[in-house]
Amino acid sequence: FELLFHSRDSVKMAAGQQWVLVEMVQAFYEAPAYHLILEGILILWIIRLLFSKTYKLQERSDLTEKEKEELIEEWQPEPLVPLVSKDHPSLNYDVVTGPPSHRIIVNGKECINFASFNFLGLLDSERVKLKALSSLKKYGVGTCGPRGFYGTFDVHLELEERLAKFMRTEEAIIYSYGFATIASAIPAYSKRGDIVFVDEAACFSIQKGLQASRSFVKYFKHNDMEDLERLLKEQEIEDQKNPRKARVIRRFIVVEGLYINTADICPLPELVKLKYKYKVRIFLEESMSFGVLGEHGRGVTEHFGVNIDDIDLISANMENALASIGGFCCGRSFVIDHQRLSGQGYCFSASLPPMLASAAIEALNIMEEDPGIFRVLQDKCKHMHKALQGTPGLKTVGEPLTPALHLQLENSTGSRTNDLKLLRAIVDYSLDRQIALTLARYLDKEERFLPPPSIRVVVTVEQTQEEMEKAAQCIREAAVKILK
Amino acid sequence: LAKVYHTHLCFASVYHAACNGELYSRPFIESFEETPMLVAVLTYMGYGILTIFGYLRDFMREWKIEKCHIAREREEQKDFVPLYQDFENFYTRNLYMRIRDSWNRPICSVPGATFDLVERSSNDYNWTFEYPGRVVKDVINLGSYNYLGFAENTGACATAAGEVTVKFGVGMASTRQEMGNLDRHEELEKLVASFLGVESAMAFGMGFATNSMNIPALAGKGCLILSDELNHASLVLGARLSGSTIRVFKHNNMQSLERLLRDAIVHGQPRTHRPWKKILILVEGIYSMEGSIIRLPEVIALKKKYKAYLYLDEAHSIGALGPYGRGVVEYFGLDSKDVDVMMGTFTKSFGAAGGYIAGRKDLIDYLLTHSHSAIYATSMPLPVVEQIITSMKCIMGKDGTTIGRSRIQRLAENTVYFRRRLREMGFIIYGNNDSPVVPMMLYMPAKIGAFGREMLKRNIGVVVVGFPATPIIESRARFCISAAHTKEMLDRALDVISEVGDLLQLKYSRHKVLPSLDRPFDETTYEENKE
C-alpha cells in the first residue's frame, strides 16, 4: 500500500533514481493530506492490535473460588473401564501349546488346524525356519530403531525389491505390522476434504485408516457396481456446481481383492472401467488374495488379467500366505515413495525384525519356484466348499475359490449372544473331535456394518482330502445335534 | 524478530526441584538452554536463502534447464486430480533431498555398540543411490535405541530365540482371540506384570499400534484427553481416533496441566457444560526429542487431587531408568499402582519388538475383550516373545546372573559421563541429567547434513533430526547411550564430536561448566540403603 503511493510520486521524479532518505522525506511533505491521514490511522490500528488482549472464545463465567473448589470436590468420573463379567464370551482365549501349524494342540487336545490363515502351509516349512535362524544369528532379533535411524537393514531393501519384482510393480514398501499397513497408507494420501468410496464389507483396518484420514467417506453396497456408479454420478453433479473445488479434491475407491468378512471377490474389471470414466484412483487391499488367487499367486489382478499399473496402490499383509509378520504396499514409485515420509506406521515405528524379513524372502522363493501350489490350493478350496454345502442349519458364505469361508446360521435365533452361543457349541464339539475351528471375531460396537456371527473355516494346502471330509462330517453332526 | 525473542523467553535455564521438595526424593536437573540470538537470526536467514534457491530450482526444473528426477504421474492419468499438491512437497524436494543421505542408512550387522554400514553413494545429489557393494565396518553406534545392549546375536537371548524359531517357526497366522493365543504369550504377560509390579499385563505386536489401538478403547466421546505438547505421533493418533476432546498442555509444565484440569472440571464440556465422563492424561516417561523426563511425582499428585486417570507411555524409559530398570516410576521411588495405565515398548531396552499395557486386572480384562489388536491383528511371533522373556529375566536377575544389574549400572554411568563431558566441551545439550537420550543442538540447516557426514567419515554413526520432527530452528543431533558402549568407545566418540564441533562451530553454549576431577561416575547415586 505504502509502496504503491510512493511509487506514484516517484514517477514525477526521474525514473530509475535510487531511493535516498532525503527524497523520501521530500515525498512525505509532498504527499496529499488524505494519504497521511490514512497512514496515520493504519499505524494506530496496528499499535492497538499489538497491545490488545487475545480474544478467548470460551465464556468466563464468574464463579467464586469457593464455588470452583466445590465443583472440583463434587465431580465424580466414570470408572476407567467398565466391568467385564467373568463369563464374557471373548474373555477366555483358547490356549495353543506347541507350534500353530497343520497339527495344532488347542486346550490340550491335538487337532487338525482349520482356523489359522496358513494358506500355503509355510508356517512349518523347514527352509523358512532355517533361513530365519541364520538371519537371527547374523542380526539378532530386534532392529532397535525406525527405518530413518539405522533401522534399515539390507534384508529390508532386498525384501522390498523382491516383492516389487514378484508383483511386477516399480516399488514396494514394508511395514512391521499387518494391521498398520492399510491403516497408514490411506491417511498418507487422502486428507481432510477428499472423498473415499468404500465397500460396506471393508475390514476394520480400512475403517481405522479412513477414520484417521478425516476424509468424507461414502459407503456403497457390497460388490454392487450400480450403487457405486450412482454415488459417483452424484459426486459428478456436485463437482459441476463447484468446478474450482472439484479440481483439488482427490477421489479414491478402496476395495479388497478377497473380502475377509464375506469371502467373495471384488469385480475388478468393472472397477477399472469406473476408474477411468469418473477419474477416481483405486486402492486395493489384497491380504486374503495375495498368494492365493491368480496363476502365479499374484492376487486378484492376475486372476482377472487386469494390468497392474491400472491399480494405484496394492496393499497386503504378509501374515497369511507368506506366513511371516508385517505388511507391504506396492505400486508405482510415484505413489509408493510418498509413504516413506508420510506413512505414520512406517516413519514413527521400529522396522520389521530382520529374521521375519528373511523368512518372508524365503517364502517368496518357495512361491516362485513352485507355482503349482496355487492350483492345488484352489482345487482344495473348491472341494471344501462343495463338502460343506447342505449342512443342515448352516449356510456356507463365500465363493468356491476362497480359502477362508464363513458358516452362518440359516435361521438366526434373534439375539446375537444366543447365535454366538450356538456357534461356540459347534466349535467346542468339533474341538472334541480333533477339528480346530474358530468363531470369526469382531468388535461389536465399533464395526460400521457388523457381519452376522459365523464360524471361520480355513483351507490350507497341507490338508488332505480325508481330513477335509472328516471336518465336513464333523460339522454336519454338530449342526444336527446342536441346531435341531 | 519479536517472535524469535518471545520463543526464547519460554525456555528457562536450569530448574532445581527445590520447591515441591517433598515430592522429589532426588534432585531433578533439567536444562534447555536458550537459543543464542545471533544463531537464531542466522538460522532463519539460512532457511530463507534455501527457500529462494528452492524456488529457483523449481523454476529451472519447470523450464527444463535442470534435469528433473522427480517421479511423474502416468500418461493415462494426467487428467486426474493431482495426487499431491506441489507446495506440499516443496520442503521434501528442495531441502530434504539435499541431505537425504543422513537418513535411512542401511546396515548389515547387529545394531549393537558398533555396526557395519552398507556403503552408498550418489551421483545426482541424492535423487538415486548406488550400492558399490562395500561395507564400512565397526562404526560406533550412537543412533540405535539399544539402551541395555540386548541387541546381540550371541548369548542367552539369541540362543533361546533360535531354539524357538526351529521348534515353532516364525509366523502366527491368526489373531489372539482366534487361534493365535499361545501359552508363551500368557507367560510373557505374567512376567511383564511381575516386572512392573502390577496385577496384570497384555502384550501387542507393535509399539505404535499399542497406542493407536488401545487409547480409543479407553476414551471415547464425552471424555477429555490432556496430552503433552511433545507427545509421540502414536499417542496423538490414538487420541484422535478415540473421538474425545483433546487439550494440549505445555511440555512438562505442571501449572499448565493444573489450569487445564481445573477449567475442565469447573466448566465441563464446551457449550453444553455437562460434566466430563472421565479425564485421561497422556504423558511419556522420557521424551526422545528433548531428552526430558516427565515430572511424575507432580503429575501423580495432580491426578489424585482432580480424580483424573494417568496413561504413562514408557517407550524409552522402561529398562533405562531406575536402579533396577523398572522405569520412571521406580526412578522417582513411586508406587506403580498410582499410574492407571502403564504402557511401554519392547523395542528399545529389550532388543525385540512390540508393546505392552499393564495395570489393574479389570483394565486388562477389558482390553482382552475390547482391544482392536486382540481381535483384528496377528499375535506376536514366538522368537520375539522368547527374546523378551529371556532379556526381562536377565534384567530381573531371575536367570541367576548379575548381567542385568551391571548393565543398568553401566548405562547410568555412561549417561552421566557422556552428558557431563559434552557440557564441559561447550555444546548445548537438552534434557535431564539422567536421560540416556542426549539431544545436541545444531540449529542451522546446513550443519545438519554436515554433522552427519563428518561423523560418518570418522566412523561414528549419529542421528540428526530437523524439521518437521523438531521446531524449524531447533534441529539437533540425538545420541542414544547404550550399556554396551565401553568407556573407550565413548571417549573416542567424544573426541571426534569435539573435533567436528570445532570444525562446524557447534559449541554454542555460554554457560561454561568447569571440568571436574577425573571421576567418570558418581558411585553414591546407586548405593542401596540398608535400613
Automatic annotation (TrEMBL), chain A:
<keyword id="KW-0746">Sphingolipid metabolism</keyword>
<comment type="similarity">
    <text>Belongs to the class-II pyridoxal-phosphate-dependent aminotransferase family.</text>
</comment>
<dbReference type="GO" id="GO:0016020">
    <property type="term" value="C:membrane"/>
</dbReference>
<dbReference type="InterPro" id="IPR050087">
    <property type="entry name" value="AON_synthase_class-II"/>
</dbReference>
<dbReference type="InterPro" id="IPR004839">
    <property type="entry name" value="Aminotransferase_I/II_large"/>
</dbReference>
<dbReference type="GO" id="GO:0030170">
    <property type="term" value="F:pyridoxal phosphate binding"/>
</dbReference>
<keyword id="KW-0012">Acyltransferase</keyword>
<keyword id="KW-0663">Pyridoxal phosphate</keyword>
<dbReference type="InterPro" id="IPR015422">
    <property type="entry name" value="PyrdxlP-dep_Trfase_small"/>
</dbReference>
<comment type="pathway">
    <text>Sphingolipid metabolism.</text>
</comment>
<dbReference type="InterPro" id="IPR015421">
    <property type="entry name" value="PyrdxlP-dep_Trfase_major"/>
</dbReference>
<comment type="function">
    <text>Component of the serine palmitoyltransferase multisubunit enzyme (SPT) that catalyzes the initial and rate-limiting step in sphingolipid biosynthesis by condensing L-serine and activated acyl-CoA (most commonly palmitoyl-CoA) to form long-chain bases. The SPT complex is also composed of SPTLC2 or SPTLC3 and SPTSSA or SPTSSB. Within this complex, the heterodimer with SPTLC2 or SPTLC3 forms the catalytic core. The composition of the serine palmitoyltransferase (SPT) complex determines the substrate preference.</text>
</comment>
<feature type="domain" description="Aminotransferase class I/classII large">
    <location>
        <begin position="110"/>
        <end position="473"/>
    </location>
</feature>
<comment type="pathway">
    <text>Lipid metabolism; sphingolipid metabolism.</text>
</comment>
<dbReference type="GO" id="GO:0005783">
    <property type="term" value="C:endoplasmic reticulum"/>
</dbReference>
<dbReference type="GO" id="GO:0046512">
    <property type="term" value="P:sphingosine biosynthetic process"/>
</dbReference>
<dbReference type="InterPro" id="IPR015424">
    <property type="entry name" value="PyrdxlP-dep_Trfase"/>
</dbReference>
<dbReference type="GO" id="GO:0004758">
    <property type="term" value="F:serine C-palmitoyltransferase activity"/>
</dbReference>
<protein>
    <recommendedName>
        <fullName>Serine palmitoyltransferase 1</fullName>
        <ecNumber>2.3.1.50</ecNumber>
    </recommendedName>
</protein>
<dbReference type="GO" id="GO:0046513">
    <property type="term" value="P:ceramide biosynthetic process"/>
</dbReference>
<keyword id="KW-0443">Lipid metabolism</keyword>
<keyword id="KW-0808">Transferase</keyword>
Automatic annotation (TrEMBL), chain B:
<keyword id="KW-0256">Endoplasmic reticulum</keyword>
<dbReference type="InterPro" id="IPR004839">
    <property type="entry name" value="Aminotransferase_I/II_large"/>
</dbReference>
<keyword id="KW-0746">Sphingolipid metabolism</keyword>
<dbReference type="InterPro" id="IPR015424">
    <property type="entry name" value="PyrdxlP-dep_Trfase"/>
</dbReference>
<dbReference type="InterPro" id="IPR050087">
    <property type="entry name" value="AON_synthase_class-II"/>
</dbReference>
<dbReference type="Pfam" id="PF00155">
    <property type="entry name" value="Aminotran_1_2"/>
</dbReference>
<keyword id="KW-0443">Lipid metabolism</keyword>
<feature type="transmembrane region" description="Helical">
    <location>
        <begin position="37"/>
        <end position="56"/>
    </location>
</feature>
<keyword id="KW-0812">Transmembrane</keyword>
<comment type="similarity">
    <text>Belongs to the class-II pyridoxal-phosphate-dependent aminotransferase family.</text>
</comment>
<dbReference type="GO" id="GO:0004758">
    <property type="term" value="F:serine C-palmitoyltransferase activity"/>
</dbReference>
<dbReference type="GO" id="GO:0030170">
    <property type="term" value="F:pyridoxal phosphate binding"/>
</dbReference>
<protein>
    <recommendedName>
        <fullName>serine C-palmitoyltransferase</fullName>
        <ecNumber>2.3.1.50</ecNumber>
    </recommendedName>
</protein>
<dbReference type="GO" id="GO:0046513">
    <property type="term" value="P:ceramide biosynthetic process"/>
</dbReference>
<comment type="pathway">
    <text>Lipid metabolism; sphingolipid metabolism.</text>
</comment>
<keyword id="KW-0663">Pyridoxal phosphate</keyword>
<dbReference type="InterPro" id="IPR015422">
    <property type="entry name" value="PyrdxlP-dep_Trfase_small"/>
</dbReference>
<comment type="pathway">
    <text>Sphingolipid metabolism.</text>
</comment>
<dbReference type="InterPro" id="IPR015421">
    <property type="entry name" value="PyrdxlP-dep_Trfase_major"/>
</dbReference>
<dbReference type="InterPro" id="IPR001917">
    <property type="entry name" value="Aminotrans_II_pyridoxalP_BS"/>
</dbReference>
<dbReference type="GO" id="GO:0017059">
    <property type="term" value="C:serine palmitoyltransferase complex"/>
</dbReference>
<keyword id="KW-0012">Acyltransferase</keyword>
